[in-house]
Design goal:
single chain; about 120 residues; alpha+beta; four-stranded antiparallel β-sheet; 3 helices
Length: about 120
């Protein structure tokens, strides 16, 4: 796998593929701090920390997602994990989570399709 460099068109396309989803759940606008971003062919994986412009944190309790998930302990924060797929030259977010409490992406199903970008999670 390779990591798209900061400032490249590919990196912008990947962030733009997941941004509408994250803004729907956490409110807009959102910028991302990239913890991991990996691409291999037409598959990708991102581990992202959303924030507001200027580096301001996003208080989870003030998000649309918090409003609909009150009382749920299945969400822990705002960290985003996303699998990307490219079809017909366009990247889109195929699967994602916000605030996952476990490594849902480390299972056999994910490894079947995305092993190249998450090899350390696939046995």
């Amino acid at each position: 796998w390779e990591e798209p460099a900061w400032g490249t068109q590919l990196r912008r396309e990947l962030m733009d593929a997941v941004r509408p989803i994250v803004e729907r759940d956490l409110g807009a606008p959102v910028r991302f701090v990239v913890r991991q971003l990996r691409i291999d062919g037409d598959r990708g994986f991102g581990w992202l920390e959303p924030q507001r412009p200027g580096g301001r944190p996003i208080p989870f309790d003030e998000t649309p997602l918090a409003a609909i998930s009150r009382g749920s302990d299945a969400i822990d924060g705002t960290t985003v994990h996303v699998f990307y797929r490219r079809e017909k030259g366009r990247w889109f977010a195929e699967e994602w989570s916000i605030g996952a409490t476990d490594a849902w992406w480390a299972g056999d199903e994910s490894c079947t399709e995305f092993r190249a970008v998450i090899p350390e999670y696939c046995g």
